[in-house]
Design a protein that fits this description.
Elements: H1 2-14, E1 18-21, E2 35-39, E3 56-58, H2 65-69, H3 74-101, H4 131-141, H5 144-153, H6 164-179, E4 183-195, E5 202-206, E6 212-214, E7 218-219, E8 224-232, H7 238-246, E9 255-259, H8 265-274, E10 279-283, E11 299-300, E12 333-336, H9 339-346, E13 370-375, E14 378-391, E15 396-406, H10 414-437, E16 444-451, H11 459-467, H12 469-475, E17 476-481, E18 491-496, H13 501-510, H14 519-523, H15 528-532, H16 542-548, E19 553-559, H17 575-581, H18 586-606, H19 614-638, H20 650-672, H21 678-694, H22 719-731, H23 738-760
Parallel strand pairs: 7-11, 8-9, 9-10, 10-12, 15-16, 15-17, 17-19
Antiparallel strand pairs: 1-2, 2-3, 4-14, 5-6, 5-13, 8-13, 14-16, 18-19
Helix pairs in contact: 1-3, 4-10, 4-18, 5-10, 5-18, 10-18, 19-20, 19-22, 20-23, 21-23, 22-23
Length: 770
């Protein structure tokens, strides 16, 4: 009996108390190698002196641990049989008693979203609230009437970033966070922006017309005075300028006049600068803006986000910065003008007739249509204050989702900032009440952020990211942007990381709108990805979170078909104007938008596993690599001298295949693994959190190319830039450079392979072949 007791003791003590087999792709050629993750609460070292590293046992050829400990003699086998029989009896009795007195312990939710109506079983500490109960609680607490009251409290006519009005709103937000019981704090930055001149003026003079003084302005424009010939360039998109170049029109030194809309002010100016224009004038055309012809536009033209005079660094006070400027600052003048001013210019233009499909007056302008543009904006340093509050999680408190809204505006900014700020505060109140009064215990934390400086290019949000990048990049698993949620009512648009698409679709089906219909039923119209998804734009605060920090992000909005809400970027963005375009349904639309955001936030902090769909990126990568392959073949056929025969797309295809195998294998292994262990869930979530971050190219400087994401970022390192460069090589345009392309191609290949390696497993388990 003593020997049996000894044998049983060896069986229990020889293995860790918690054991989970978690398979990962290790061989890039698709072999069947596996990783065994042994999870132990005491983290003891295993035999052999390998320490913690021995917990990942790749392709071990050793006998099982128990077999090593026990000899295979008949005597030992008898004792083992007796011990196993005794264990069976004890286990049966314990199981019977537990079954009588306890409910069945729920298990960890699957990584793949279950079909609608399927019960999601949860387990772990703290006790999990049923998801249907969570949804009901949010619906009860987040109401249109509560939001309507918040609109009144947070409406202010003047709250430009850094102004007393902005600071007053920040204090109100801080006090509300404290009232709701959130741990609260503020974050100060001292940023440099361009503002209107205090004494000098911005002006234009066309031919012999009278001087026009300008009230609207574009922050970060170059300053000075230029004289050039006017040229109409439609919306200032890249294809618009190509159309002009194909007509053999010389754009050098021209003052380009373009319509507002379709792309950002900064993109219009950057496109014009590539064509060597000397200045850009932007006006609101009547086709897109039906408001008064004298309304002025405001904005910025920094092709980036954050303080452009401290690129890559946070603008903390008394901190030393390298004497550099953002590469996204334009070197040409940029200024907004009114529709009346633009109409007076168009009526006097000569030159060629408009290209087919372009709307406007009849002529593009010729070399005799001269205009003087003078911009005298001044650099100003402002103190801006971001405000934060946190609801801490009960399991993984150091992992958090960030929910943010812009607080500043050029004028009243009701759609631009008031609605988003009100939803932010109501979500904080609702969820804090759920935790304090209703027994809801989130696994992970929620950080509520009220950012300022948004009108200057997401300055507050970006400076916060730059200041705490090392922490946010590894601990923040998502950013939910609440800016501009309500600008209409006919359409619902979503822009997000592909990792979040599956979660978004499920949320669209859950959130009800009119007559019990879901957002999906109301707006999807068959294929939600075609009708509701749109690219994430650089002027969204979610963009730097995704493309600069590698944090999966989402931005969404109720909007109109055409034209969109026209009072953004003006001082006429009031509640009355927004009520007019929404049939006075702003509180109801804000409630629906708040519930959509709330459902995503609560799902991310409620489930054991983050709902991130790896296979979405796999499809995107394979599609883009296929396009690049086809274009390379075409260029080699048409321009054989540009590429050596040794340059093939096989390396890039192999890297794509590595990512595809690693993502499929991980998704399958996560789905099929036993996920009852809290530590195991944390490990898997950390893998999922690293995916977006690994798409940031390590081969470009965050200072020169801050948006380093190779799929969704901006710059020559992206796969989109590779494809565009191939188009230029095929057409033999001046910007085509075969050597530069080969460099871009190599760096993109290794970035993609690095993503696959990180997803596949640990360094000792990787295949070094590509």
């Amino acid at each position: 009996m003593d020997q049996a007791r000894s044998t049983i003791s060896k069986i229990f003590n020889g293995e860790p108390h918690s054991y989970t087999r978690f398979n990962l792709t290790q061989n890039m050629e698709g072999d069947n190698s596996q990783v065994e993750m042994k999870l132990s609460s005491d983290m003891d070292e295993e035999a052999g002196g390998n320490g913690v590293g021995a917990r990942l046992n790749h392709n071990s050829n050793h006998k099982p641990f128990v077999a090593q400990k026990l000899g295979r003699t008949p005597k030992n086998l008898c004792f083992m049989a007796a011990g196993i029989f005794l264990l069976f009896i004890i286990g049966y009795l314990v199981g019977y008693l537990v079954h009588r007195n306890k409910e069945v312990a729920p298990v960890c939710s699957a990584s793949i979203v279950p079909s609608e109506g399927e019960a999601v079983r949860e387990m772990g500490s703290p006790p999990m609230m049923d998801w249907d109960d969570v949804k009901k609680l949010l619906a009860q607490k987040l109401t249109a009437s509560k939001l309507d009251s918040a609109f009144i409290e947070f409406t202010l006519s003047d709250h430009v970033a850094g102004s007393p009005g902005d600071e007053d709103l920040g204090n109100k937000v801080l006090n509300r966070f404290k009232e709701y019981g959130l741990k609260s704090w503020t974050d100060e930055h001292f940023v440099t922006v361009h503002d209107l001149p205090a004494s000098n003026i911005n002006r234009i003079v066309f031919k012999n017309s009278a001087e026009e003084r300008l009230v609207g302005f574009l922050s970060y424009s170059a300053t000075g005075s230029v004289k050039g010939a006017v040229l109409y360039a439609y919306y200032g998109q890249e294809n618009d300028f190509r159309t002009l170049r194909d007509r053999n029109i010389d754009l050098s030194g021209r003052v380009v006049i373009v319509r507002a809309g379709r792309i950002s002010f900064a993109e219009k100016v950057a496109n014009a600068a590539k064509m060597n224009a000397s200045a850009v004038l932007i006006y609101p055309d009547g086709d897109d803006y039906s408001f008064d012809e004298n309304i002025q536009l405001f904005g910025h033209v920094h092709m980036g986000s954050g303080d452009p005079y401290t690129p890559g660094f946070p603008s903390f006070n008394h901190t030393q910065f390298p004497p550099v400027q953002s590469s996204g600052l334009p070197k040409i003048l940029a200024q907004t003008i009114t529709r009346r001013m633009a109409t007076n210019i168009f009526r006097q233009l000569g030159g060629q007739t408009l290209p087919e499909g372009w709307k406007g007056f009849h002529k593009l302008g010729d070399v005799n249509d001269s205009i003087v543009v003078e911009v005298n904006n001044i650099l100003t340093q402002k103190k801006i204050i971001n405000v934060f509050g946190v609801i801490k999680g009960f399991v993984d408190a150091d992992r958090y989702v960030v929910v943010g809204a812009q607080r500043d505006a050029w004028g009243p900014g009701f759609a631009a900032s008031t609605v988003g700020t009100s939803i932010l505060l109501e979500l904080a109140r609702s969820i804090s009440e759920m935790v304090k009064n209703d027994g809801f215990k989130p696994r992970r934390s929620i950080v509520f952020a009220s950012f300022t400086g948004g009108e200057y290019g997401s300055v507050g949000a970006t400076e916060w990211l730059e200041g705490y990048l090392s922490s946010l990049g590894t601990k923040a698993f998502s950013y939910i942007n609440l800016d501009g949620i309500v600008t209409g009512q006919k359409l619902f648009k979503v822009a997000a990381s592909p990792l979040m698409h599956t979660l978004i679709e499920r949320t669209l089906r859950e959130v009800k709108v009119n007559n019990g219909l879901s957002l999906y039923s109301q707006f999807a119209k068959g294929n939600w990805e075609l009708t509701m998804l749109e690219p994430l734009k650089m002027d969204s605060a979610a963009y730097p979170f995704l493309a600069f920090s590698g944090i999966p992000s989402i931005s969404f909005r109720f909007t109109s078909d055409n034209p969109d809400y026209m009072y953004l970027n003006t001082k006429h963005d009031t509640r009355e104007k927004l009520n007019f375009v929404t049939d006075r349904r702003v509180p109801q639309l804000a409630e629906q938008g708040g519930r959509f955001a709330g459902h995503i936030v609560l799902r991310l902090i409620h489930d054991h596993l983050l709902q991130m769909d790896l296979m979405k990126y796999d499809k995107i990568i394979r599609s883009q690599v296929s396009q690049i392959n086809g274009k390379v073949v075409a260029v080699q056929r048409m321009q054989p001298t540009l590429f050596p025969k040794s340059l093939t797309v096989q390396w890039l295809i192999s890297a794509s295949g590595s990512f595809s195998r690693a993502s499929r294998k991980m998704a399958n292994d996560v789905q099929n693994s036993d996920l009852d262990d809290v530590e195991m869930c944390r490990i898997i979530n950390d893998y999922l959190m690293s995916v977006e971050r690994n798409f940031l190219s390590p081969y470009v400087s965050p200072r020169d190319s801050p948006f380093r994401h190779i799929l969704l970022g901006s710059g020559p390192h992206t796969l989109k830039a590779l494809s565009s460069h191939l188009d230029a090589l095929r057409a033999s345009t001046p910007e085509a450079d075969g050597d530069l392309f080969r460099n871009q191609f190599a760096l993109a290949t290794w970035t993609l392979q690095g993503c696959a390696n990180s997803l596949a497993g640990d360094i000792w388990a990787l295949d070094n072949e590509i």
